[in-house]
Design goal:
The complex is a heterodimer.
Chain A (H helix, E strand, L loop, with lengths): L1 H13 L5 H18 L11 H14 L9 H14 L1 H5 L6 H4 L3 H35 L9
Helix pairs in contact in A: 2-3
Chain B lengths: L19 H20 L8 H20 L3 H18 L1 H6 L2 H6 L1 H32 L4 H8 L5 H10 L4 H25 L6 H23 L1 H28 L4
Helix pairs in contact in B: 1-2, 1-3, 2-3, 6-7, 6-11, 7-9, 8-9, 8-11, 9-10, 10-11
The chains are: A mainly alpha, B mainly alpha.
Amino acid sequence: MASNQEATKTAATEHEPAPILQQMGIFAGVLFVSSLISPLFPKSFPVPTPVIGLILMYVLLASHIIKLYQVEKMADFLISLIAFLFVPSGIQMANSLNVFTDDGALTGVMLIVTIILATVILLVVIAYTTAGFMAISRKVFHKTTDIQ
Amino acid sequence: MTWVNFFGNALDPKVGGMAFFGIFLSLAVFLIGKYLFKISKGFFLFQPLFVGMVLGIFILWLMAKWFGVSLPTFYQSAYKPGGDIIFWFLNPATIAFAIPLYRRNDVVKKFWLEIILSLIVGMIISLFIIYYVSKLLGLDNTMIASMLSQAATTAIAMPISGAVGGIPAVTAMACIINAVLIYALADFLIKIFRLNSDPVGAGLGLGTAGHTVGSAKAVQLGSIQGAMASIAVVVISIVVDIVVPPFAHMMGLF
């Protein structure tokens, strides 16, 4: 497993990163193909373009059709920008602040409190459930759960 | 006031027009946030994303007052054209998470069953807790229904929320607040709930609660956390697709 990790790392450092325009081209291509797949899902089971794109990109990497050095630089750059890219979504709330005040100030406050609690609940419950399943694998199925 | 046109013809409610103002404002408020975060030595309320959001809305509100139009109108005509361009880049940024995921493919191969089971079971437990907490806080059925699908990415959460009798706009708001909160409070929450001992769990939790922004945070914490948050973003969205409608039906929400 550790050697597997090293192998991936060396494969990435062996090559010079691909030219940035080529990396953009791969991203644009994956997104375009995903945008063609996305409408095929029924309305009651929506799967948006970026989710399909993430799966598609992962499959292409796992099947070695795309190599890490061809997309790595662009991906690291985009991930480092995420917080900034989310600013318009935050400011978008200016458009619908009325949902907090429509049913009276109390409901609005309770709504915000619920959202804050829900965030913490999701984080903690998922993390603890995972710890539980890891403990079951370790104790019942004697699987090692050590990872570096 | 012809110079109003510099802001994308703010007095015209028609959507479209100049994008320069929206892009400049987004960058300016975010950079101010970054500066405040730096000089306050990382005070959590000065997270660049949070400052950018609050300051951005405040500036738009001031300008809307100044021009004598409503805030939503001013937002639509002056900010949205530029904001939408930046927003579009969340598409490639989301698929970029396939790379940290693939880098730790060893962990994915070893624990794929635990990951999927944890996300499904964890989601169902969370739904029950969120349902009863909302009920306790006195929210009505429409609002409760709007709270259930917030773990999914916005593009899934909104239609599912509408389908189970909620208000999609409220759910979208919840998704945004999730992300901003997790980005600001992740370190604090991980510390007080001691989530650090299990990087797989911490990663899955961050990706679920904080969407792609939570994943970006997880990537900073470590390669395993980053990979797990990336997989959580995808799998939890599909889980929400499948689990939330029957749950809402069972609870008699629609």
